[in-house]
Amino acid sequence: MPYPAELPARPDDHDDAPPAGSRYQHLDSTAVRESTAALQKRIYSRFPDRGLWEVCGELVGLVDEVTSGGGISRRRIRLARLLSRLGIIAVLAIFGGAIILAAASIWSSPDALGPIDWLPLLETVVNNLVFAGIAIFFLVAVPQRLERARVLRLVHRLRSLAHVIDMHQLTKVPERLQRGSREDGGLDLTREQLTHYFDYCTEMLSLVGKTAALFAEDTTDGDVLDAVEGIETLTSDMARKVWQKIAILQAQGI
Questions:
Q1: Please, are residues 164 and 201 in contact by the beta-carbon 8 Å criterion?
Q2: CA-CA distance, 220 to 241, in Å (whole number)?
Q3: For residue 249, what is the enclosing H or E element?
Q4: Closest to 26 (Cα-Cα) out of 210, 157, 226
Q5: Of 221, 84, 57, the residue nearest 142 (C-alpha)
Q6: How many helices and strands (H and E) does the chain possess?
Q7: Which of 32, 75, 74 is nearest to 216 (CA)?
Q8: Which of the four, 10, 105, 214, 254, has the lowest number of CB atoms within 10 Å?
Q9: At what angle do helices 119-170 and 52-67 cross, to 10 degrees?
Q10: According to the per-residue pLDDT averaged within each range, which of 83-87, 102-106, 157-161 is highest?
């Protein structure tokens, strides 16, 4: 395989987005979805009688919700964005018309006006600009607030799913391998099977973090980025505890 050529130098006035020829500076939602679906199949093939593969199916559904353009929330956001743009046009038309009418009233008799007579026009212009700016700021912020609320709801569901994954591995401690069947307080798993089970949990936790990271791809919203960072920290801490159990299993198997 030939060594890849370097990307061409970017102009000084680039917009800080990934270069056109780059494939590795953007998280691919399709790849995240395919990895999650493949993990579900692997879990089911090895542990069809365990509920872990169903949890992974829930994660597949969440990935689809994150990347899809459908849903009631999405439709509301699109409608709010359309109404916001129409409202901005109406605000500009109304306040612009008020300024034009005030100017026409003054220019109808320009010879009779002194310098102080221009103050009403200046006052009207300033007031209209201030109120128009406030109205436009509010209208622009409405779709953004709706989008933020949708993202935070989905992030909360990802957080809950991460805790469910953690609960599935929480009671599976290496010491229970020696107790035999579930009726005797055991796990009905071999050491190798338990290692694979823990591996699947860590992979799923990592994919939960990657699903949350999809929200951070096209936003600079501070609340969204903080929520995504919280999910990534949570899943990393949970996975670290699972790896400690894997290390114990490996030490016992030596």
A1: no
A2: 31
A3: helix 222-253
A4: 210
A5: 84
A6: 6, 0
A7: 32
A8: 254
A9: 160
A10: 157-161
In 65-123, which ranges are E strands?
none
Yes or no: say if 106 and 121 are a contact pair by the CB < 8 Å rule: yes
What's the pLDDT score for residue 232?
93
37 CB neighbour count, 10 Å cutoff: 16
The Cα 151–Cα 57 span in angstroms is: 20
**pLDDT tens string 117-158:** 667 667 777 877 888 888 888 888 888 888 888 888 889 999
Say which residues have a Cβ less than 8 Å from residue 168's Cβ, sequence separation at least 6.
51, 52, 55, 201
Q: Tell me the pLDDT tens digit for each residue of 30-89.
A: 899 999 999 999 999 999 988 899 999 999 999 988 887 655 556 776 777 788 888 888
Helix, coil or strand: residue 201 = helix
- Please give the helix or strand (H or E) that residue 138 lies within, else none: helix 119-170
DSSP letter, residue 50 = S
Q: Of 164, 191, 172, 202, which Cα lies nearest the Cα of 250?
A: 191
C-alpha–C-alpha distance, residues 76 and 232, integer Å = 28
